[in-house]
Amino acid sequence: MRFSSVVFAGALLARTAFSFQSGSSAHSISRMTALRSTAATEEAVAAPKSFVGSKLNDLDIAKEALAKFYDDIEGVTIEPTTGGVNNIVQYITLPSGERELLRIYNNGCDSMRVQWEHDILKQLNTFDLSFGVPKFLETKEGTTMVRLSNGADACMCELIPGGLPKLTAVEDIGRASGELNTALTKVDIQTSRCNVAPYWKMWDVHHAVTRESFEEEMNGPHFDEVRETADRMLKETLDIVDRCEGKYQSLPIQLIHGDLHYDNVLVDEGKVTALLDFEFAAFDWRAMELAICLSKYAGEEPDAMPYFVDFITGFAKTGKLTKEEAEAVPDLINLRILSNIVYFVGRHQAQEDNISSVTTRIQNYEKRVKWVNENSDAIVKCIVDEMGL
């Protein structure tokens, strides 16, 4: 699965802040002398080399990362962002008041994927887009990513203004998403460099998971408390994989964002200011982008359809699908939702995450899949009508 791991919104600060103190200048950061919370360091435990987590439990790693960008590391405050389950993302405030973003990847030490994301964004930053995308800062050596002593990669980004939209600004998010879908066709990058699997290759969604290990895990004791839901979702997953592998192989393929939903969007006064988190960009079915976007709204109470209509209306202004693609979208939405289950099982098997990441969400996933199945005809009709297919 591709799950939100970056929040750039300046307003979404958690309370705990780590501060590096000194009388030095803005880019002067050297040793940690003060913490607002000493408990964080006292309770931190050493993680396996491939495991980073989504919370900052090792302040030395943060200091090590910052030292790659600045000569000293005193006087800097580190504050966690809200949300994010894949990577560590922290707000960085320099003594000058300038604010940036530190990201430490928890992706199994996959530097190829990090470089892939950075190269795509380097090109997108040269395009005339109506919204911003992450812009990575250079290290002292002139690169945009560094390998840390625990095996993880780290980078820093400029802070983009805006806040998370949740269920607001839906039509404009659709418009921006269609614009990005069109713009990504102009990114010049070798397909052979992509090591992110397309969604229809479900058993490649995470390096640790196979069809056999997934079935074994879903039938195992970790899911006993949600047994009926787990059994239904296992069947839905196997069915959607078989259907997509055979039915949709003629759909157009292009570079897509791969994780575009409202938790990876910033808005200000109802307008999109940024689309974020390109870590899972991949060559996949073009229609998959719209399906991913819509999947987050599926099952919203009291009625998700108005969100679908607004989003599709916006997307149709700047993006385009064929009728065959439109008819595939309900299945592709469910492919995306169910891939979350497979992905989190893989992360558990790789000891990158706790199984609770999926057991606590699986009933919500079932609710969304059921809603899509019940409303598939209306979803297709809306796309066909808005795009004039």
Automatic annotation (TrEMBL):
Keywords: Kinase, Signal, Transferase. InterPro entries: Aminoglycoside_PTrfase, Kinase-like_dom_sf, Pseudomonas-type_ThrB. Residues 78-304 form the Aminoglycoside phosphotransferase domain. GO terms for molecular function: homoserine kinase activity. PANTHER family: AMINOGLYCOSIDE PHOSPHOTRANSFERASE DOMAIN-CONTAINING PROTEIN, AMINOGLYCOSIDE PHOSPHOTRANSFERASE DOMAIN-CONTAINING PROTEIN-RELATED. Residues 1-19 form the signal peptide. It is an enzyme of class 2 (transferase). This is Homoserine kinase.
